[in-house]
Specification:
alpha/beta; three-stranded antiparallel β-sheet; single chain
């Protein structure tokens, strides 16, 4: 099973993707992670990525599709979660062609829908464990009183520099401008399902499970 998670920055895509990896054995394909992995891999594709990034240039769609192709052909796990890709209609078309060429299908596109004002309030209160990435929130899931991560025991907590209101609103505008056309694209293909991204983590997990099952 291959799925796409759509949603603005901070909607919780990463949290839900990790849950699917842990409970269903799926593989999360995050564009950023794939680029970092490729850069350090020493493969031909990795050398191309390293060269582009060293020059400070944007990685092309062709390179990202090439990295995804490598993952698809490796055939690991019980399916793939596309997180952060596609972002544009051109990328959606390219992904569709790639899946077809490799004999695979896209089984669901899940939009994690959020209210912008509530999202801003949630994200500006967010912090993460610097060691394992566990997410905390000053309001809904405060850092443990003993100052140690409940997941790994580390005590190094971080806040993203761009998790401030002005920066987040800019990121939201960029998301809606570039990525929102994908909502209509996949709706027209009768592949789109919508869940409330601002629910409790377990509630969102349950809603996604209903879509996939």
């Amino acid at each position: 099973m291959n799925i796409i998670l759509l949603g603005p920055p901070g909607a919780g895509k990463g949290t839900q993707a990790r849950h699917l990896v842990e409970t269903r054995g799926m593989v999360q394909l995050s564009t950023g992670d794939m680029l970092r992995e490729a850069k350090d891999s020493g493969t031909e594709m990795g050398k191309i990525v390293a060269d582009v990034m060293a020059r400070g240039e944007l990685v092309t769609d062709e390179i990202v599709i090439g990295l995804i192709r490598e993952k698809l052909e490796a055939g690991e796990g019980a399916g793939f979660i596309f997180d952060g890709f596609p972002r544009t209609l051109a990328q959606a078309d390219a992904l569709g062609e790639l899946l077809k060429a490799t004999g695979q299908t896209l089984d669901a596109v899940i939009e994690m829908q959020v209210d912008d004002e509530a999202l801003v309030a949630r994200i500006t209160a967010r912090s993460t464990c610097g060691a394992c990435g566990e997410v905390y929130n000053d309001i809904t899931k405060p850092q443990p009183a003993d100052g140690k991560c409940s997941n790994c025991g580390a005590s190094d907590f971080k806040r993203r520099a761009d998790d401030n209101e002005d920066s987040l609103r800019t990121r939201l505008m960029e998301y809606y401008k570039k990525t929102s056309p994908l909502i209509g694209y996949y709706y027209a293909k009768d592949m789109l399902a919508t869940v409330d991204g601002l629910g409790e983590i377990a509630e969102v997990q349950g809603a996604i499970a209903k879509v996939l099952d």
